[in-house]
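To whoever picks this up:

The parser on our side crashed when reading a file containing two proteins. I've narrowed it down to the boundary between the first structure block and the second sequence. Both blocks are reproduced below exactly, byte for byte. First block:
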Amino acid sequence: MSDGALHGVRVLDLSRILAAPLASQMLGDLGAEVVKVERPATGDDARQYGPPFLDGDTAGMSAFYLSCNRNKRSITLDFTTDRGREVLLGLIGRSDILLENFRPGVLAKYGLGYEDLRERFPRLIYCSVTGFGQSGPYERRAGYDGIFQALSGMMSVSGHPDGTPGAGPMKSGLSLIDILTGLYTGTALLAALRHRDLHGAGQHLDVSLLDCGIASMSHYVQNYLVSGDVPERRGNGGFGGIPSQAFECADGRRFFIVATTNPQFGRACRAIGHPGLIEDPRFSSISARIEHRLELLEVLEAIFVQREARHWIEVLDAADVPVSPVNDIRSALGDEHVRHRALPIEMAHETAGPIPGLRYPIRMSGTPVEDYAAPPVLGEHTRDVLSGLLDLDEDTIADLAAKRVI
């Protein structure tokens, strides 16, 4: 078994909930050593974000927490105390990355802000993930994923179009901005590591969920910047070429088709038995189909409602047209291709037993991701980390525990 790509990198993770813990989990998947620092007695708030919880009597192991905390070691530490701060500084000195998601200024109250540490630890990469960033009128505000989906405009382009039943802005079912922020953060940390290793200097990463949410709107924002037109909601339709849409069929089921290029559209029309649509001047080019989008969708809806979804999926797939059933999670995980890709995994845990999860999705030939340590129970590794990294003896550790520092 080979070392992971980030073997030798140590991450001190002070973060909670989802966005930042997801970023540190990905670094852990890639081979970094991640030490998760949690509050004594309570730990990461996400531990209580259930039900569902892991079966059994293991406290603080919600499914939400399990989703973003594997490949980490958990220690409990109250760094608001003088002794706790001293211990944390010792761990910072042995780490490459410090990841935190407190509101701006909170850690500075304890002498643990970036400006407090930059001279003492010049190679440290200090990453702050906050709702609104380190500056601006809203910097002190708290915020969660739904707030940023609303504020960023993401909700305004999600949901049924105006004039249809149930119309109105809609939040994504996923905590989408949290997840995207985790991905942006992971990429930025890798870039900062590369820069540090080339030039010897750490830096501060100011990550804002709002910034990441707006950046994630991609071509929606670009369309607005170019045209000045505010994008409309299109329900289950795409915002590029046409058709890129979900359609309801005779059996009440839905499928999604993408036939936006001219060759794809031609193959689709022939496969569904309506080759004449190809020659219709309203639909004969990509731009014409976009301009006459509603007319084309009306024609296709009338066609697809005549047969069951399975029929259309089979004939379109045979014609090399991108098409898929609209699955729920059970159906997605049961799909034959998903089963072949072996995405579900089991992680062994001494007290909790086998814990289900999903593997790291990228297949790497030189440094494959093969190790999946189960998410830790609260403080599971406190003694191991303090003795192993800081050389603290049992008496010192016992004294810290007696004083509730750990």
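<<boundary where parser fails>>
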Amino acid sequence: MLLQTKAAITHYCEYQERCHSEVRNKLYELGCTTPEVEDGIAGLIEIGLLNEERFARAYARGKFRMKQWGREKIKQQLKLKKISDYCIKNGLSEIDAEEYDRIFQKLMEKKVNELKSERSEMVLKSKIYRYMVQKGYERDMVIDLLNNMIKEKKKY
């Protein structure tokens, strides 16, 4: 591997956490051959610049806090990046359960308030359900909270 390619990929990995597939793609973009790519990845792992578990943890924390994604969407995106199930599990453990529930509740209430003018209860439930599942929250959680919110609403 050329010295300038080595410097470029080192900078690429120092800038933020990367997974193996991102680094592999970047090395191919830089014109490396397959043996050079594999050697480069091995070298980055050796010096500690490339660590998939560390990447999964940072990714899960970031996507949850910044984009308020649910566990399902984070898991799906990590699988697309070819992260192992072990690393995904460890990455998801970074998400605090209480904070997760609080954000889930906040997003659900926000969506309900946005859709106040919706007359049909079925359409309302459907729109909220689709939104929350698209954000990556577990289907069972969404259904349970929706049913509880509808029951509470009927009490008044």
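After patching the parser it read the second block fine. The chain has a mean pLDDT of 91. The chain is about 75% helix and 0% strand.
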